Amino acid sequence: MGGIEFSDELGRLIERASKDMEGFWGDVARELYWFQPWERVFQREKYPFFKWFVGGKTNISYNCIDHNVLNGRKDKPAILWESAERGESKILTYGQLLTEVKRFASSLRALGVKKGDRVTLYMPMVPEAAIGIFATLRIGAIYSPVFAGFGYRALADRIENAGSKVLLTSDVAYRRGTIIQLKSIADKALELVDGVEKVVVLRRGSEEPPMRRDRDLYWEEALEMGEGEHEAIPMEANEPAFILHTSGTTAKPKGTVHTHGGYQVHVYAMGKWVYGLNESDIWFCLSDIGWIVGSSYVLFGPMLVGATTVMYEGTPDYPSPDILWKIVEKHKVTKMWVSPTLIRSLMKYGEDLPLKHDLRSIKFVASAGEPLNPPAWEWLQKKVLKDRAPVVDHMWQTETGGPIVGNPYGISLLPIKPGSATIPLPGIEGDVVDERGEPLPPGIEGIFVCRKPFPGLIQTLWRDDKRYVEEYWSKIPNCYYTGDAAKRDEDGYVWFIARTDEVIKIAGHRMGTIEIESAILTHPAVAEAAVTGMPDPLRKEVVCAFVVLKGGVEPKEELKKEIIQTIRNIMGPIVVFGKLVFVTKIPKTRSGKIMRRILKSLVMDKPLGDYSTIEDPTAIEEVRRALGSNPP
Ligand code: AMP
Question: Is 628 helix (H, G, I), strand (E, B) or coil?
Answer without folding.
Answer: helix
